[in-house]
Design a protein that fits this description.
The structure holds two protein chains of two kinds. By secondary structure, chain A is mainly α. Helices cover 72% and strands 2% of the residues of chain A. Chain A has helices spanning 11-35, 40-53, 55-80, 88-103, 111-140, 144-164, 199-216, 218-228, 230-235, 240-267, 278-288, 293-316, 323-343; strands at 2-5, 344-347. Chain A has a two-stranded antiparallel sheet. Chain A is globular, with a radius of gyration of 21 Å. The relative contact order of chain A is 0.22. By secondary structure, chain B is α/β, with parallel strands linked by helices. Chain B folds into two domains: 2-236, Rossmann fold, CATH 3.40.50.300; 253-503, Rossmann fold (3-Layer(aba) Sandwich). In chain B, α14 (399-411) packs parallel to α15. Chain B is globular and about 70 Å long. The chains are: A mainly alpha, B alpha/beta.
Chain lengths: 349, 504
């Protein structure tokens, strides 16, 4: 059995392949649902209803997708340049720290200025978290997988220290939680009496902007060139180190913005359980989307729907919420496979 | 009698017919040369023979029995040994370990190194393959590594030895010694298939030549009845004449290197001058510093000492974007690894050296795709790059067309200095003639050209002056008529010209 590359892969095939992969994953997981003795149809119906069935469900799914879009973009941008940023989780918390530092009373501006400013410092915070790994990589060729991954724990411990110590909200009788973001800095709700906030618009805009940058600018060209073949890029005069720094700042900045949406949008204050692993899930989002910035909108929504829907489903039928993790993992494998089948033809000899 | 018969072998890759009903037999004690351009199907055929691929139709008989298709193990068991074009040795293991690798039972407790060493020494003596069994591969020259490859192939008592482009990395003297080994092998009743596109080597070593073109055998001739021109015409399908440089008066100096060194001893005190209307050839065995010299002039490596003068200005620090902007056209040695980005499109690769300037972009930031595509279309036309258009994926192009793309990128800006590093390596005759014509046209226009090559035919046809690199040092340069091929060969092995004169 051999694989032959197809000379031409149509746009349609490139879009259909991941969708087919997800469908295959749902089919595979129905085996597990059958095993529990529940009805497959009912389980998936409840999952779908739990994710999109009501106004509440829909807004929950969208608000959960918001940070996933941003961390997914963070991973996609970095991976395009083959800069393996596994530290979006830490960068998200750095963005959250920056926003808490500036947004809890240090300065007060009109929301029209305050909110952009918060996103800016959050992005700077996230980008700053990548400075050390990127400098170590460029100067000493230290593997960024190791540094970015381990920095996650360092940053989380820093957050823990700040929340237990100097930044602990004195009004809260000992909860490890920072002071709330001032009213001018809180992201407005998009739908009244739900948790859906302005962050979604920012995240969707970020995806559009990243797509434009990657497709229509010299920066995007250089990021792609460095990712595909750094030696050839260097030969043609592209500055590799500069491109990687730029990519890292963009990637860390996007992850930092996810920290802003969670602190200033969803929760209103910084806690140690701000992110249930959005930084890591962003890698799955990016991979499912084949690193395409617009595809990330779909894959972030998919992941978020699975998690929100599975919560709701587990209340209706006797299936644990862990099915969500299995669904996401199976989807990733199936999408990798289906995309490969779209690109290659299998020959049996 | 035939030790090996290939009967009606056909192999398709998608729409490409790589082998088309090939029937061929190899007699005992014979050296058969398989001649053909790149892409003619030589390597495919040998891979079918060795079991890497399975033929769509046809079969192979060895010693009268049909070989199990698709199994290298079966090929080895039947007595076929293969020496690949790209060596398949583990650098961090010794010669002995490499040779016995994979030939021992998985279930034995220890390696029988003593027996292996004896066997290697016997073979080395019998066939003139001198090499220290305990040396690490990484310490060996390319010629020695090839001897190890041959020992490895012979270790399983191969009766048929297949060599794929074996002389690509050898000096003329090493090539002679390889051919001596092959003659000894056939003298003992073994048989050899040698794949090559170098006509003079085939004429000197083989008994019979089979010529492949577009996947089919177009002729089989006895070597003593053939000559260079008839073989070339058979191989290409029409007569192709490689251009030769006409004498021309050199102009102003465009590049000068004074005592340029790099690293510990990668480059050691290089003195070099290239003038307009002049082609300076650098000969040498691969790995003697040519790649480092090319890196320095391309702007990729910064010399540790010395002075570089470019277009009369110096000393200058060279960077890739700096040399391109100053007017240097560069043809890199490895077109796939650093010449182009295979996963990107033809227009993106054609624009890669001036992506921050019009027409590729506006304001150094926004890509101007329509303009870049339009220019790519013009270059594709002007340089005859065969592809589906500016949006074709570059990696899907043939080697010759990728090289034309690189020529288009490097030469279309009319550079005043051209660095051509192995510009025709792996290209077929038609493409070689094309590249040489383009280089000579650039020279007539007034460019100075630094031509780094391992192909002495190319060097002698194009260069005005030649110098030889050996272990990071560059000899002084000689007018091309003042040195002979054997002298160049000895200089490539490290002898001084005076000594080389004495020895020849």
């Amino acid at each position: 059995m051999r694989f032959e590359p197809r000379e031409h892969v149509s746009v349609l095939a490139a879009v259909v392949a991941p969708v087919a992969g997800v469908a295959a994953a749902l089919l595979l997981c129905s085996g597990l649902i059958l095993w529990t003795g529940e009805s497959v149809g009912e389980a998936y119906w409840l999952l779908l209803k739990g994710a999109f069935g009501t106004k509440f469900a829909l807004t929950e799914t969208l608000s959960r997708a918001t940070p996933l879009i941003l961390t997914g973009l963070a991973a996609a941008v970095a991976f395009r340049a083959k800069f393996w940023n596994i530290g979006a989780e830490g960068q998200l918390y750095c963005g959250a720290l920056a926003v808490t530092w500036l947004g809890t009373g240090m300065i007060t501006l009109h929301p029209v200025l305050m909110i952009p400013l918060l996103f800016l410092v959050g992005a700077l915070g996230g980008g700053a978290a990548l400075l050390v790994p990127v400098i170590l990589k460029n100067r000493l060729k230290v593997d960024e997988v190791v540094t970015t991954l381990l920095l996650n724990f360092v940053i989380l411990l820093l957050v823990s220290y700040l929340l237990e110590g100097p930044w602990k909200d004195p009004m809260l009788m000992g909860w490890p939680q920072a002071a709330p973001i001032i009213d001018e800095g809180v992201l407005p709700q998009l739908v009244a009496k739900t948790r859906l906030h302005l962050g979604l618009i920012v995240a969707v805009a970020a995806a559009l902007i990243v797509w434009l940058v990657m497709t229509f600018t010299v920066w995007g060209y250089e990021i792609r060139a460095v990712g595909h073949n750094a030696a050839a890029a260097a030969f043609s005069g592209i500055k590799i180190n500069r491109t990687i720094i730029r990519t890292a700042l963009l990637s860390g900045g996007l992850a930092g913005m996810a920290g802003v949406t969670e602190v200033a949008g969803l929760k209103g204050y910084l806690t140690l359980d701000l992110s249930p692993g959005f930084g890591y899930a962003g890698i799955a989002v990016a991979m499912l989307a084949q690193l395409h910035p617009l595809g990330i909108l779909a894959s972030a929504l998919f992941l978020s729907a699975i998690y929100v829907g599975a919560d709701s489903m587990s209340r209706g039928v006797n299936i644990p919420t862990y099915i969500a993790d299995v669904l996401v993992a199976t989807s990733m494998l199936a999408v990798v496979l289906s995309v490969m089948l779209a690109r290659f033809r299998i020959r049996f000899s | 009698m035939a030790v090996l018969e290939i009967v009606g072998v056909t192999k398709r890759f998608g729409s490409l017919l790589a082998n088309d009903g090939i029937t061929l037999s190899l007699a005992e004690g014979e050296i058969l040369a398989l001649l053909g351009e790149n892409g003619a199907g030589k390597t495919t055929l040998m891979n079918i023979l060795f079991g890497h691929y399975t033929a769509d139709e046809g079969h192979i008989n060895v010693g009268g029995e049909t070989l199990t298709p698709g199994s290298p193990d079966a090929a080895i068991a039947a007595g076929i040994g293969m020496v690949h074009q790209h060596f398949t040795l583990a650098d961090n293991l010794s010669v002995l370990e490499n040779v016995i690798l994979g030939r021992e039972s998985l279930w034995s407790w220890r390696q029988d190194k003593a027996r292996g060493r004896d066997h290697i020494l016997t073979m080395a003596r019998d066939f003139g393959l001198e090499v220290d069994p305990d040396a690490l591969i990484s310490e060996l020259s390319l010629g020695e590594r090839q001897r190890v490859e041959i020992l490895k192939a012979l270790y399983g008592d191969a009766q048929v030895l297949i060599l794929d482009e074996p002389t690509a990395v050898l000096t003329p003297q090493e090539t002679d010694s390889l051919f001596e080994t092959l003659r000894r092998l056939v003298g003992q009743g073994r048989s050899v298939v040698i794949i090559s596109h170098k006509l003079h080597e085939i004429l000197s070593v083989s008994d019979r030549v089979a010529v492949l073109r577009r996947g089919a055998i177009v002729g089989t001739v006895k070597t003593h009845e053939a000559d260079r021109d008839s073989l070339a015409e058979l191989m290409v399908g029409r007569s192709v004449v490689r251009p030769k440089a006409e004498p021309m008066a050199p102009g102003e100096e465009v590049l000068r290197l004074d005592k340029v060194s790099l690293g510990a001893a990668k480059l050691d005190g290089i003195e070099l001058s290239v003038r307009a209307h002049e082609i300076v050839g650098i000969a040498g065995v691969a790995g003697n510093g040519q790649a480092d010299l090319a890196s320095v002039i391309s702007g990729l490596a910064r010399p540790s000492s010395g002075r570089i003068t470019l277009f009369g200005e110096g000393p200058v620090q060279l960077t890739p974007e700096g040399v391109v902007a100053a007017g240097v056209g560069r043809i890199p040695e490895d077109r796939n690894a650093i010449g182009v980005i295979g996963a990107m499109t033809v227009w993106e690769n054609l624009s890669s050296e001036d992506i921050r300037r019009p027409p590729a972009s506006r304001g150094g930031f926004l890509l101007d795709k329509p303009a870049a595509r339009a220019r790519a279309g013009e270059l594709i036309e002007a340089y005859d790059v065969r592809c589906k258009g500016p949006d074709a994926e570059t990696g899907l192009l043939s080697g010759g067309n990728i090289q034309k793309l690189i020529l288009a990128r490097a030469l279309s800006r009319e550079p005043k200095l051209i660095l051509a590093n192995q510009p025709v390596r792996g290209l077929d005759e038609g493409a070689i003639a094309y590249v040489h014509e383009r280089l000579l046209a650039a020279r007539s226009r007034g460019a100075g050209i630094l031509l780094i090559t391992e192909d002495l035919d190319e060097l002698l046809a194009l260069a005005d002056r030649v110098a030889v690199m050996y272990r990071g040092r560059l000899t002084e340069s000689y007018a091309v008529g003042d040195v002979t091929v054997p002298e160049l060969g000895l200089m490539m092995a490290g002898q001084k010209l005076a000594g080389a004169r004495h020895a020849v």
